[in-house]
Amino acid sequence: MLLHLQTVPARNGLLWIRHGLKVFRRKPLAMAGLLSVFLFIGLAMLLLPGVGVMLLLMAMPLLSLGFMLATHLVLQDQTPTAAVFVAPLKLTPQRRNSQLLLGACYALATIAIGLLSEWIDGGSFETMQRLILENAAPDKVAEAASDPRLFWGAVTRLGLAGLLSVPFWHAPALIHWGGQGVLQALFSSTLGLWRNRAAFAYNGLLWAALVIGVGVAASLLATLLGLGQMLPLLVMPLGLLMTTVFYASLYFTFIDCFMFGAPKDILSDKA
Length: 271
Description:
By secondary structure, this protein is mostly helical. Helices cover about 75% and strands about 0% of the residues. The protein has one domain (about 5-260).
């Protein structure tokens, strides 16, 4: 398809969330089921010794593209299935190889970020995780949290992960729908996000506010009802719901940045 890079106003960052929610409301079981299937497959991959983590990281770009395809089907009044995750690998041999290479690049870059961050924090992040899982005494957890290396390791992880998401944000879709090569797709994705940085910044701030707001509301509700120990059971389904809506909204970020013949009113309030 012919792709056309365009610039959209910052307010579209809110529209992406609204349309993702509308898509979820049309096919809630199907969309939530897709995320559940991927999570199950991901857990199965982690059980594979040696290559499990690598395979899971390689599959992450296909997760975002799969949800874009699923959203596209929902807009056509069709019910998406787990086949959306393998559909990009069946299009043409060239695009399949490009998707696999893209996934390998993402996996290697993510592992490199993890190794660099671990070197910076000196293993303090793993120590903190272990103490939390072991329900260690609060004073031990507080002592581990006071390690300044933990802060700089977290800054490195989050900062580099954010930078890595920029070239990979639209790259799978650009390969699938635009037939671009890996390097061209990475460059086009970076250019698309830079052109629309105001909309993406607004979108990110809104998602952060939603996550914090939902977490605080769930915590207050659990406290008022005396169900503090049940808080994880309340947060988990809400987290899965918000994650599903987020992935459903990715399709709109793509067609908004690279309009490729979708209906002109697809991003209107009536969509």
